[in-house]
């Protein structure tokens, strides 16, 4: 897998290697042996791999190497973000939502803007930077080891450069009365490379809704690499939602590394409307029996946007269920990519796994690529996948117009009927409603 | 007055309508009967303005307005309504949401105020009750999982909600049992009025016992070949369509 | 049910080793020296008495091959092949210059009879009892290829009357150079992939079919491949051209002796369908799969591609894959002509240590093109069975349609079933539907069958035959029953 020896490195790759040498000694945890080694090993791996291009099978449809022409500065001067800015920047109607709010501004955890009053006894939050500088034993044992992936250059880059993020520990049996809203915004007007990492440990039988929101309207061409490691304890119930509304020129790569305990119930959803090139990777592993997971997403793209939803689900334990539903609405010259891989190990009998990817193409120049893979080594399983791609059904449009509904409105109704099926998978009502409203506005914005 | 003159229309390059002439004054109900393949459904789609149904000659004028120039939804705003033979299922679009969108689109075009959710609900409930449409049907996605009879009743409900002045019913009787047929017919008869023109397209005479027409026309090979009073329907019932080119294979 | 009973009987008849075509024929052969270089290519070309342009073509392919890499993306694992440790040409001595069937070595004829392929036209017309999966049916013209050469082609005269050319490709190169020059390599270019380049350099024989304009080929055409010699690769090349408005149905079958070594089979098949033409290509692949411990067996690395070059043309691939240690093949359709159609129907059964990586590519280039893929994979024993398929619609392929259904069945818990579909839509009016399922034979189905008196193996054979039915129906009638038997045999020992 030594790719970089076979080819010329790009300016971005060279810059990343160089930047690391410059900042390594000042990154959090630089004085902690294992942290420093972890970063160095990751950097060595990145040097060997380079940025993934289309020759890397998992990146076949999303050539990051070609898209990432240059690497921005890793440290950006931060303009202060005010309390009132936050929800404006997000562009989604959630300011009324009662939540525990965690704000990571320009890649740095901002205690002032965060508010977790009432968390006592339920969960603890620390900044990743602090934790790396003085890591407790439990953290050292788990960190960087949740559902590890081989040869993933963007994960290696994240480990090498991670500047901050949050560490959340939800106590056993704790039931959070409101969602934890992790807001990643940038206030800077200069382009930057923001690398964050979150670590979430959900205790046995605990209940958590975690929403990660991304927005970078002030810095349209920012580059973001963020990772969330999450351990879901036995019988815990977790809803993990993402709202991606990056700037028009942004490159956004996010990876969720998740492991589920026995009887866990995990519901993940991504709503993606932003970014020039965005990829969300969901790596999920079943470690205990009788757990279930639903991974779903809604992508609404226009202009030249390229958005990729990639999932890899490892069924390592028997009697588990996974469901996937991804929907893309594609206008203009946008490109949607949905890749899903379900791997059923020999021991994972009675696995029930299904994937579905659907695209709705509103323009002749849009493109949809899908690769739903099954890799199965157990015989007593029920697995399936489906993909459909097509344009708006003329008959439906005619029917609506024959009832007096103008074409624009009829199209919007059908687009929303299509995409809302995915959004309905969000369990938290406030978030779901906010997304439904956002999706209803989308066509009007896209079509100007 | 609906005036259809020398209407020629093509579907997929085949000429299906070959010079239809038809006049329906306001206040009257006319029926078009004819064998399979005579162009009945084509006529209804051409009137509604469906894509792929290309008018090559002739005109469709309703109360002085040329409908053929209008988009599908604009015809509805002009008072036209087609109750379809095969209403489509639209997963994901809630029936109530759809009805409100349609009603408000028409109201807006007529310069009336839009209805809020509560007002819509009140009006819809009232009309639905008359058509024996249970409320849970209104909660489901549009037409999804509806039986044939339920779909037809939903068509009539929409017709009464949109208050059209020119109604075309395409094979509304197909797939209905006698009770459903009576309910649907009552709904249509309630629409009759001095400013309305109604065109009933059907293969069988049965429906015309419930919706009694002022005139009956026979469509054959894309043209109206005979017109008469309601007794013409009975005659056709007896003699069949043999002389009008009923295609055995059709 | 009759077929099921036959399957069961067949299974009972099988000895410990179920491969019934595993004998070898002791026959005097002419071989090229081991290894591959320009001289070997010149040797092959000279043996075939080829014109200069053909030699040039081969040498060009060889040069390209040398700079190419073996593909590694398929889910198959095998030790690196030493391409210098193979014989690239072997021919029965007696078969070198044949004028008629009467001159064929009786030993060879006996071999084919044993395989169930009678090569005497009288016998074929009469139909032969106990004929194998590929022959015995009356009125099928056969081209029999033994190691590197075509030993006999039947019914040539009969076909010539209809204007159909059906002959060894070595003969076509000499007799119909204008056709060969025009079409050879036009669907699968020399440097398309590692194995097609190798084939282009060293192919020794294969079948050539030409159906003139407006002709419906009066009989099924069939080629029967037999690898006999050890350490010998078989590299055949098939080219079928269907002119405007013509139709042909073609069937190929293959077997090899049981040997401890792995033998390489790297064929190239090119189909060209012009305007309104239709080609139906069926394969029953029964190469030696290796023994119960995974020793020996054929490496089947094959490039098959059809070009729907004319409007309204149609190419249909049907394959039943039961043999080979490793299968690497993706019969594909390039839907270039407007309204053209491509079809792929496949049954791939793997047992023992077999590895299958097979599927198709449907490339939609023309308007209103449609394709259909039905793939049924059955994995048993310690085998791995992968479906890999690409469906793509290019910018100009308006209103293209694809339907893909790809089902896998697992029997036992040491095997794997994998699905790797690529779906690429670059046109909004393209409508693609893809469905895949993986399951085992349900306990309820087994219980039901057994409660009706079938034993376990019978029940499995019955259910599997039901599972593959959609595809079986695509095979020419004559071969359906035989194929059903083959399925039973291939799964022998997979339960209990």
Describe this structure in words.
The complex is a heterotrimer of chains A (448), B (250) and C (496). With 448 residues, chain A is an alpha/beta fold. Chain A has one domain. Helix content of chain A is 23%, strand content 37%. Chain A has 10 helices and 19 strands. In chain A, 60% of the residues are buried. In chain B, 40% of the residues are buried. Chain C contains 13 helices and 23 strands. The N terminus of chain C is likely disordered. Classes of the chains: A alpha/beta (448), B alpha/beta (250), C alpha/beta (496).
| CATH homologous group name of chain B | P-loop containing nucleotide triphosphate hydrolases
Gross geometry of chain C: globular
Q: Main beta sheet of chain C: strand number and arrangement?
A: 11 strands, mixed
Number of DSSP strand runs of chain B: 12
Biggest beta-sheet profile of chain B: 6 strands, mixed
Low-confidence runs of chain B: none
Overall SS class of chain C: alpha/beta
Q: In short, what is this structure?
A:
The complex is a heterotrimer of chains A (448), B (250) and C (496). Chain B has 250 residues and is of the alpha/beta class. Chain B contains nine helices and twelve strands.
List the helices and strands and how they pair.
The complex is a heterotrimer of chains A (448), B (250) and C (496).
Chain A: H1 11-23, H2 33-49, H3 64-67, H4 85-90, E1 100-105, E2 108-115, E3 123-127, H5 128-133, H6 137-142, H7 153-161, E4 166-170, E5 180-185, E6 193-202, E7 207-215, E8 223-232, E9 237-245, E10 251-260, E11 265-272, E12 277-286, E13 292-301, E14 306-315, E15 321-330, E16 335-344, E17 352-361, E18 367-376, E19 382-391, H8 394-401, H9 407-423, H10 429-446
Parallel strand pairs in A: 1-5, 4-6, 5-7, 6-8, 7-9, 8-10, 9-11, 10-12, 11-13, 12-14, 13-15, 14-16, 15-17, 16-18, 17-19
Antiparallel strand pairs in A: 1-2, 3-4
Chain B: E1 2-11, E2 14-24, E3 29-33, H1 40-48, E4 53-62, E5 65-66, H2 72-77, E6 80-83, E7 90-94, H3 95-109, H4 117-130, H5 135-139, E8 141-142, H6 148-162, E9 166-170, H7 178-191, E10 197-202, H8 207-210, E11 215-220, E12 223-228, H9 231-239
Parallel strand pairs in B: 3-10, 3-11, 6-9, 9-10
Antiparallel strand pairs in B: 1-2, 1-4, 4-5, 7-8, 11-12
Helix pairs in contact in B: 3-4, 4-6, 6-7
Chain C: H1 2-13, E1 29-31, H2 38-47, H3 52-66, E2 90-92, H4 106-114, H5 121-126, E3 140-146, E4 149-153, H6 156-161, E5 165-168, H7 169-175, H8 177-183, H9 194-202, E6 207-211, E7 220-226, E8 237-242, E9 247-255, E10 262-265, E11 268-273, E12 278-285, E13 297-308, E14 314-321, E15 326-329, E16 332-335, E17 341-350, E18 355-364, E19 370-379, E20 384-393, E21 401-410, E22 416-425, E23 431-440, H10 443-451, H11 456-467, H12 469-472, H13 477-490
